[in-house]
Amino acid sequence: MKPAAFTYHRAHDVRESIELLTELGEDAKILAGGQSLAPMMNFRLARPSALVDITRVTGLDYLRHGADGLRIGALTTHRTVETASELAGFDVLPRSAHWVGHYPIRCRGTFGGSIAHADPTSEWCLLAVLLEANIVLAGPRGQRTVPATEFFHGFFATAAEPDELIVEIHFPEPARQAALTEFAQRQGDFAIVAAAVRLSSVDGQCTGGRVVLGGVDPRPLVVDISNALDGAAVTESTWDAVGELVAGQLDPPTDAHGSGAYRKQLAATLVARAFAEAAAR
Amino acid sequence: MTAIGQSLPRKEDPRLLRGAGRFGDDLQRPGQLHARIVRAPQAHGVLRSVDVSMAVAAPGVVRVLTAADLPDDPRIPVRLTVQGIELTEHLQPVLARETVRYVGEPVAVVLAEDPYLAEDAAELVALDIDQLPVAMDADAGTVAAEFELGFGDTDAAFAEAEHVVELDFDVGRHSAVPLEPRTLLVEPDRATGALEVFGMTKVPVFNRGVLASMLDIDEARIRVHAMDAGGGFGVRGEFYPEDFLVAWLALHTGRPVKWTEDRAEHLVAVNHSRQQQHRISAAFAADGRLLGLRADVAHDNGAYCRTHGIIVPELTLAMLPGPYRVPAYRGRIAVVLTNKTPCGTYRAPGRFEGTVVREQLLDMAADQLGVDPVQLRRRNLLEPAELPHTRPMSTLGTDVVLDAADYPGLLDAAVAEAKRLGYYAQVEQSRAAGKRVGLGVAMFLEKSGLGPQETADVSVGTSGAVRVHSGGTSLGQGIETVLGQITADGLGVSAADVTVINGDTALQPFGAGSWASRSTVVGGGAVHEAALAVRERAIEVAARILEVAVADLTLHDGVVEVRGAPGQRVSLAEVARACQPGSAWLYAGEPAGLAARRRFEVAHMTYPYGAHLAVVELDEQTGGVRVLRYLVAYEVGRAINPELVRGQLIGGVAQGVGGALSEEFGYDESGQPQAVTFMDYLMPTAAEIPEVDVLVTENAPSADNPLGAKGAGEGGLTAAGAALANAVRNALGEAGSVARLPMTPARVRAMLAGEAG
Ligand SMILES: Cc1cc2nc3c(=O)[nH]c(=O)nc-3n(C[C@H](O)[C@H](O)[C@H](O)COP(=O)(O)OP(=O)(O)OC[C@H]3O[C@@H](n4cnc5c(N)ncnc54)[C@H](O)[C@@H]3O)c2cc1C
């Protein structure tokens, strides 16, 4: 569990990061909190030829809440999100943060790192898709923005080019009634299945909603619930029905943590629970 | 005030908590090389060739070792032969030569200037393996040994039975995962040819002997040093292939060689344990009396027989009747070889497995007979008046003689304590609130204090400081503290003045090691006797100095004093100086020194016992199991240090929760291990372990040792699978059994849905 040889470079600002990435070629990788990359290197599942350490890059560690929504700098740690206050409309983020690993991991791991790493059960990836965030990338060709719904291509694969850096995640629209819940056997583990939902309702009647699942597909999966919620009552039985509707559309994989059939059952349960939690907001 | 019975702070803690402990990986020696083991990537195959040419040419590589470089085919011997069963043809070679038999089997060793280069080069060793079919479960494997234990006429018992209860129950493969993986550093002394070994634990004297004979050198040329270890639990410190390979390389390169196991290796390389399939049946009379018990067990031992030989299956059978009155018993076991990591002991070996099977069966029987499960146990537990109770069979080479005990008393005390703590009320309230909760009770018999002997040296230095050289090893269990307390009382000094050194083969060449909950019982007995001998000698020499009769002297607080004349005294330091060579107080020809060596021997083991009670809650949708309450009641004979007994029990429960609910070494059908990181091998964390209530009793001291102690190392784990299985079964409201451990959420969800788990 010693990594293969690599060279190490420290970047001090975004421009230098991009220059280094360009110079070092596509086998170079960004090192942020190291909470995913370092274990993968130690197992030799990742063998970057060079690391560009961005942890000292200034100006990427922020939460900005304003009229145009919430902007999260790529180097903002999970813990900073967890302890953020006054994120009205976006408080599903701090409420969900405790699901991300363990305290020490949350203190080092970064929001941008999670998005770039694109684990299909990652809470931030699910919420970025749920809330239709935009991923802001900086590269040698300038800056561009990719909608989260188009960003994740599969297990650890994204729309980012090897020479691009995620600099910001922008959540344009608040979602007051939103929740994320998940199931794993132990506190802090990656979810077997995670469900993120948002709801809109007026006077005890649903007007719409959205469901994103993790652990059932190589990417955060948006499940089509069409207008199943439109006009439905804000009650347990509605959530159960949507849960079943969702599960019925899934064909999840089997692995050591659970069979496809079990994952479907979990999806039904977790979607219902997430809606109940969202409705209570 | 005596030291025994006090919860003195641990002697080990100041160094461990300040980072001053001495662990294998902390040591560096000038010129040391680093070994990296190349392991088989396939579960079964013919090893056509091992091409090391690229690896040898890699930067920093000093040597690459394969089986072809070893003169013969060294195999690791069995440490404990039982039931007279010969296992020679199933022993593990130190490096695979013609065949690989499990993923992780050592095939070559790369020796390089640093561990990174060693790992780089290890990737370059090219293995050409022709895959063979794999045997992945006991039904498909080769039987290495088969035997029976038992007594009485089971056929008659089952013929006359009013009720027969049967159960098929599997225990999943899991094992100990100590915080610190294994490490070894072997430093050759080029002048003398001696080998200094750092990092062997558990049975250092035995391992030194094995190493000496495998290297064909005199054992006096090998010294195993005392070290700290981050947990043992049975797996650490057995003689593994690496123990030979690292020493061989040091001897043959003339340079210190270090090997530090990483976690990924650990999970495929150290002994796995527990995996057994059981079919047991019990015959009951109409009134609930147990008439007979039958067990048929298949033990999936993995690819080879290692140092433990077949003791885990043997202990399963021998301990299966537990603390109950079983007039007739027949247990059969088949030890089967499969293409998985070989197995050995893990804390409470054979008992964890046998206890869950027996106790689940008793709960099923209680339902079938329509009696309360506690009552059914009560009716069948041996009464104090029936003890000692000899079972006409042997285990670990000793007869099974259950010593002083009050099993029914302990069960009653445990249930009363659980009531007092509100367990039963909580279950009722939670059920009324619609929650799916269950309570499980399990009774268990442990064993401890395996002989045949332990040796201890106690000596007093010229400053009055006391040193103890014992044969156990410090695995984190606090044995230095316990032996220090025993010495303090035996000799008449403060425990603070005693230093205990364990596991150094030069200082204590006759040690038998720390395992089988033996160190306090047997090691403590030796230390106690050696301390008494030193006390006697100190008084004798003091009598010369003070010019009084021996009978007029007492020794306490490090001072020898004339009874009734406290001013007339001499300190132990002065007595020690008076025992120095050249001292006027020594007689002509009398050996110098204030020291004694004593050997303590035991013929039988002593059998602690206890009960576990667990309350669980099931999540009906996810199948998740949460442990809400947990009680261990345990009879320890005499608690030398009550806090350490508590610690042992609580730690055991934590491991038991893992084995019962989440930990499993799974394999796919091609023999690839599925749990090779902590993302897949699910040890419970603090969040999954409940607050553990502990009730330690001292009602049945052992008559076989001067302290009355029974071992405390394993009882926290022994019945954890059983209590949790019974609690889950109770929550499910099953008529049948939970069928297997671990009870993962997916399985519990299936059982909730009425599907076979
Ligand atoms: C035991 C454990 C449990 C965990 N549990 C969870 C969990 O439950 N949920 C969860 O979501 N995560 C979990 N994680 C992962 C954790 O959240 C990581 O912090 C996160 O996945 C990656 O963030 P990082 O800053 O550590 O990135 P790094 O590990 O440094 O990098 C990860 C990847 O992203 C790339 N990268 C990083 N930053 C950028 C950037 N700004 N632009 C472009 N590419 C970049 C890197 O090159 C690398 O490929 C767990 C980790 C551990 C060790």
Question: Brief description of this entry?
Answer:
The complex is a heterodimer of chains A (about 280) and B (about 750). With about 280 residues, chain A is α+β, with helices and mostly antiparallel strands. Chain A has helices spanning about 15-25, 35-40, 80, 90-95, 105-110, 110-115, 125-130, 150, 235-250, 260-280; strands at about 5-10, 30, 50-55, 65, 70-75, 135-140, 140-145, 150-155, 155-160, 165-170, 180-185, 195-200, 205-215, 220-225.
How do the strands and helices of this protein lay out in sequence?
The complex is a heterodimer of chains A (281) and B (757).
Chain A (H helix, E strand, L loop, with lengths): L6 E4 L3 H11 L3 E4 L5 H6 L7 E4 L9 E4 L2 E5 L4 H5 L9 H5 L6 H6 L2 H7 L5 H8 L3 E6 L2 E6 H4 E3 L2 E2 L6 E7 L6 E6 L9 E10 L2 E10 L6 E3 L12 H13 L11 H20 L2
Parallel strand pairs in A: 1-3, 2-3
Antiparallel strand pairs in A: 4-5, 5-10, 6-7, 6-10, 8-9, 11-12, 12-13, 13-14
Chain B lengths: L12 H5 L15 E7 L5 E7 L1 H5 L3 E6 L32 E2 L5 E7 L2 H8 L3 E6 L10 E10 L2 H7 L2 E9 L11 E7 L4 E5 L5 H12 L6 E4 L15 H13 L3 E4 L2 H7 L6 E9 L5 E11 L10 H9 L9 E9 L13 H19 L3 H8 L8 E7 L2 E5 L4 H14 L2 H10 L3 E10 L7 E8 L5 E5 L8 H13 L6 E5 L16 H28 L6 E4 L2 E4 L2 E7 H7 L16 E7 L7 E10 L6 E11 L6 H20 L30 E6 L17 H4 L1 H13 L7 E2 L3 H8 L5
Parallel strand pairs in B: 1-12, 8-29, 10-11, 14-15, 20-21, 27-28
Antiparallel strand pairs in B: 1-5, 2-4, 2-6, 3-5, 7-15, 8-13, 9-10, 9-12, 13-14, 16-17, 18-26, 19-20, 19-25, 22-23, 23-24, 26-27
Helix pairs in contact in B: 8-9, 9-10, 9-18, 13-14, 14-15, 16-18
Bound molecules: flavin-adenine dinucleotide.
Pfam families (chain A): CO_deh_flav_C (PF03450), FAD_binding_5 (PF00941)
Keywords (chain A): FAD, Flavoprotein, Oxidoreductase
Protein name (chain A): Carbon-monoxide dehydrogenase medium subunit
Name the features:
heterodimer, A: 281 residues, alpha+beta, Uridine Diphospho-n-acetylenolpyruvylglucosamine Reductase, domain 2, Uridine Diphospho-n-acetylenolpyruvylglucosamine Reductase, domain 3, Enolase-like, domain 1, 3 domains, 5-stranded antiparallel β-sheet, 4-stranded antiparallel β-sheet, B: 757 residues, Aldehyde Oxidoreductase, domain 3, Aldehyde Oxidoreductase, domain 4, 6-stranded mixed β-sheet, 29 strands, 28% helix, globular, binds flavin-adenine dinucleotide, oxidoreductase (chain B), Xanthine dehydrogenase molybdenum binding subunit apoprotein (chain B), molybdenum (chain B), AldOxase/xan_DH_MoCoBD2 (chain B), iron ion binding (chain B)
